[in-house]
Every structure is written in C-alpha cells, then in structure tokens.
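so my prof wants the structure for this chain in the tokens format not the other one, which i didnt know existed until like an hour ago. anyway here's the sequence
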Amino acid sequence: MDRRLFIVAAVIGFHVLGLWALQAGLLRRAVELVVPVTVMAELIEPPQPLVAPEPTPPKPQPAPKPVAPVQRTVKQAPMPLAVPDPAPVPEAPTGVVSAPPEPQPAVTEPVAAAPVAPPAPPKVELPSSDASYLNNPPPPYPQMSKRLREQGRVVVRVHISTDGIATRAEVQKSSGFPRLDETAVQTVLRWRYVPGKRAGVPEAMSYLIPIDFRLED
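here's what i got, hopefully its the right format
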C-alpha cells in the first residue's frame, strides 16, 4: 500500500516538475543541447521539388547521298544473213493461174417516164374598144386646157362587164392636169366595149386604156 502511494506521488512530482521546466525554458535548452542546430533546420525546412533534367536533343543525321543509276548496255545479237538457195525445193508448191472472171452483163435501169406537161392555160382575150361598129367618139379637149396649153397622156383602168359596159374607172397614171384626167375617166365610162373572154367564154375583167391629149401647132 505504501509502495503504490509512493509511485503515484513520484508521477505527480514528475508532472509538476515538467510543467515548471516548460515555464522556466529549461526543456528548450536541453533539447538544443541534445539535438544539433543543422538537424533542427533540416527538420523545419520544407522539402524542395525535384526538377527533371532537360533531355539532350538528338544529333542531326547526315542526308544519304543519291546513288547514280547504273546504266546497262544491252548488246544486240547480229541478225543472220539470208543465203540464197541455188536450187529450188522439189516439193515447193507451184502457182495456179486461174482464168479471168467473165464480164457480167450490164444492168440497165428503167428510164423514168418524162413528166406529163401540165395542160396549157385557157386562152384569155382582153376587152376592146377599137371595134368600128362600137362608134366610140374621141374624148373632147377641154377649152380651158387648150388655152392653158395643157396636154399629156392619161392611163385609165376600166372594169368591163360581160355585156361590154364599163362599170367603173379610175386613173392609173395621171397626165399632171386634173381637167384632162377627169375628161378621160368620163369618156371611157360612156364607151361601149367588146367583153373579155376566157377559153371563148365572156368574162368580166379590167384592162388599161391610154388616152392622149395633144395640141396641134
């Protein structure tokens, strides 16, 4: 019993002594004496990162030199010379001469028939005003045109019916004077005519009548 009390008292005494030593700084001095300063610095200093060494660049390889192509000379064998044979071969085939082919008769193509000529157009007879039995008087000369010395030719287109009557008339070519043109138109409208015919049959048609107006000196 006394031994246990002694152990407990010793432990409590050590704890009290340790607390007093910490407060007085004795424990720190004891540690500095036991552990060297360099070891403490190594323990305190953090470890440095490891730096990998830079790789050495490979040395450039020299470019290969071009190899010149090897030229090969091919020698051609000499061609054999043809030697004429003085004697023909007895079994050589002989040419056969054939008779020329007989001439073929010429084939004559049928001659095309000549085209049939179209029928002739029917005969056309133009009207006429020159028949003596018609008794057509000459156109009168206007007095004013005589005084003014107007003269010239008038061409009139007149339409004649199958009865020989002028149904209408118009100036085709003027004389240059209206009085002479009007006199010519009125004259042909009063005349009688032989009607025009086609294939002998009377037919109404138009034709041109020239009328001259000339002054006598």
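also thought this was worth mentioning. Confidence is low (pLDDT under 50) at residues 33-44.
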